[in-house]
Amino acid sequence: MAGLVYAPPAMKRAEKAERIHEILEQLYPEPPVPLDHEDPFSLLVAVLLSAQCTDERVNRVTPGLFALAATPEAMAEVEVSEILSQIRSCGLAPGKARNIAALSRILVDQHGGRVPEDLASLEALPGVGHKTASVVVSQAFGRPAFPVDTHIHRLAGRWGLSKARKVEETERDLKALFPESVWSWLHLAMIFFGREYCPARSHDLSTCPICSWAATRRRIAEEARAGGGGPRSRKAAAKKARARRG
Ligand code: SF4
To answer: Which fold has domain 40-141?
Structure first.
């Protein structure tokens, strides 16, 4: 981060967005897609598997799953129990196995064996929510979409880019602040930033390459009171406070 000149905290949102864009561009000019995939179908399945599961674990199970069936046609013929046996180590595996089987049949029956390119058709598939559909649209088809998960939602709040309480509203705010051409990249850059810089445990926001100048003083004080950087530390801090109150 050497060479970056930090701005004072009282910046407008658009200025913050521009500065954050510059910092993330320096840190992650070309972030890779973390989920291994060969085509839209393997990406769709991998993103579905990544709910409540790390990307590393997904990347460990997908080779075995796609060795069993690599296309919607082939997957539609596989028993749910066989799919489950390949993905068992992922969280929520039974439901995911049922959804993979069901969505493969729908792709064959209703979409000619292809993954649809529009959000509405993707979101109609079992187990595919708005975020999963947005990842597929942007990373498989190169269309503008800004997948916002809880991590990005939390970062946008800390950085003062959105005051929204709901993920959908944060997505709306971020889309208004950044040009369409950077949405897909920014989604990945924010994920990599979070993984590299944001510890789960308590820490000092003033040492962060972005929060140190972008977070409001109120937010820094709130986070410090709550125990710092992540949900686990906040839970621990709340537990301590309850214990103090007796
Ligand atoms: S202050 Fe910590 S939690 Fe917030 S963005 Fe920076 S590194 Fe992440």
So the answer is: Endonuclease III; domain 1 (1.10.340)
Phi, psi of 51, deg, nearest 5: -65, 130
Amino acid at site 33: V
Give the mutation target among 16, 198, 204, 217 for probing the ligand 1 site: most ligand atoms within 8 A of CB.
198
Question: In angstroms, rounded to a whole number, what is the distance separating the alpha carbons of residues 17 and 182?
Answer: 12
Residues in the chain: 246
Ligand 1, atom 2: closest residue by C-alpha: 198
Distance 27 CA to ligand 1 centre (A): 15
Instruction: List all residues whose CB is within 6 A of at least one atom of ligand 1.
Output: 155, 158, 197-198, 203, 205, 208, 210-211, 229
d(CA 139, CA 38) in angstroms, rounded, equals 12
Residue labelled with tokens 């709130």: 222
pLDDT in tens, 89-112: 998 999 999 999 999 999 999 999
First to last CA, the chain: 44
Task: Tell me how far the alpha carbon of residue 174 lies from the centroid of ligand 1, in angstroms.
Answer: 18
CA geometry: angle 185, 189, 195, nearest 5 deg:
150
Structure confidence by residue, pLDDT tens digits, 125-159: 999 999 999 999 999 999 999 999 999 999 999 89
Residue 61 contacts residue 93 (beta carbons within 8 Å): no
Question: Which residues carry out catalysis?
Answer: 131, 149
CATH 1.10.340.30 domain span(s) along the chain = 40-141
Residue whose Cα lies nearest atom 6 of ligand 1: it is: 208
